[in-house]
Amino acid sequence: AFGPEVVPQGPEDVMFGLIAAYRRDQDPNKVDLGIGAYRDNNAKPWVLPVVKQADELLRKDPNLNHEYLPIAGLPEFTSASQQLICGANSPAIKDKRVLSVQTISGTGAVHLGALFLSKFYSPANKEAKVVYASAPTWANHNQIFTNVGLEMKSYPYFNKKTCALDLDAMLASLNSAPSGSIILLHACAHNPTGVDPTQEQWKKIAQVIKDKQHFPFFDCAYQGFASGSLAKDGWAINYFIEQGFELLIAQSFAKNFGLYGERAGCFHFVTGPASSAQDTIARVGSQLAILQRSEISNPPAYGARIASLVLNDKALFAQWEEDLRTMSGRIIEMRKALRGKLEQLGTPGEWNHITEQIGMFSFTGLSEEQVGKLRDQWHVYMTKNGRISMAGLNTKNVEYFAKAVDSVVR
Ligand code: PLP
């Protein structure tokens, strides 16, 4: 029943294929700049000290059990996640205009939002039931939205010449999209480019989205990880909420807690300050519960318990902020080191974008051919689009990598 005419061979996932190739490589100098997971200066996974502390507390708890969580997840986790992403003094939280559901990390939150939109989003103009994502965007976005039957289009974002944001082209594209379109936005640390709008640019983006009555969907996978400041990285979402938008948020705790495999995340629906807000929240909540029940029944408990302990305890929270500064600080140092080494070597091209970009990734501007040479000749693994995970660099390999880049661009 499942011959190749009905089930053709699918392509291997690019990212996980890259990891497998890296693991097979026996060269002692090999460098993994593929996957977006934090590594310490010894290229090893890093368990955040605050996560270790929370883990010990959890294990000591004599009442800990393995019961199901409620359908919408651990209440103390979802309420703290809400405050983190909307801001503790958010007008939306005060007015109880935020509805939150714990999900399978950020991917699950994007999926739940996509599924909700596919079932319930009904713009007056039917042609507006389209998701506009940045060009480029996280590779998984496309399949998450199209798998639930939503059409995807893109808006210009990254200017290849300047390796920076092409704001004018982005605004023009949002302006010409059918009124009421779904606009997918990366809240901070844009993946894969590392290019974020400034606050002034965000205001212009918000204005066009408001004028055109588009519907914003924020994907936030790196709060606190980009700049080291939770508030700064959450600014765009806070601003949109202050402007009274109805919007969706997918929130991941994979990177900022280093809880990748524990799948801790949250989906938030925020409605505007209308008199019918409570009614909207109740109806939307009831439908999200039905979707959640049919998809995963209820979310996994362990990662959410760890994050919840930290988010709800002042001392642990302060330790977490310290850990976030450690991770983001090391990445920022590596950006400086890489740019410095390339400039020292006189490597052809401009390298200022390496320090101007932010977060886990840098879009180097290297071509697919150069990326191929880096892999074949230098055992450096990165995606074909020239993206590198800054977390894969450390004081021991940054010079090697700079020399490798130098050799392939000459
Ligand atoms: N969205 C973006 C833009 C990402 O970069 C990621 C992780 O790479 C995610 C969402 C979701 O990741 P996870 O499902 O591990 O939380």
Q: What keyword list fits this structure?
A:
13 strands; EC 2.6.1.1; alpha/beta; two-stranded parallel sheet; aminotransferase; single chain; binds pyridoxal-5'-phosphate; 17 helices
Structural description of this entry:
Keywords: Aminotransferase, Pyridoxal phosphate, Transferase. Its cofactor is pyridoxal 5'-phosphate. This is Aspartate aminotransferase. The chain has 410 residues and is α/β, with parallel strands linked by helices. The chain has 17 helices and 13 strands. The strands form four sheets. The chain has a seven-stranded mixed beta sheet with strand order 2-10-9-8-7-3-4, sandwiched between helices. A two-stranded parallel sheet has the order 1-12. It has a two-stranded antiparallel ribbon with strand order 5-6. Strand 5 (158-159) and strand 6 (164-165) form a beta hairpin. Helix 2 (49-60) runs antiparallel to helix 14 (314-345) and helix 16 packs across helix 17 (398-409). The longest helix is centred in the last third of the chain and has 32 residues, at 314-345. The termini are far apart. Pyridoxal-5'-phosphate binds next to helix 5.
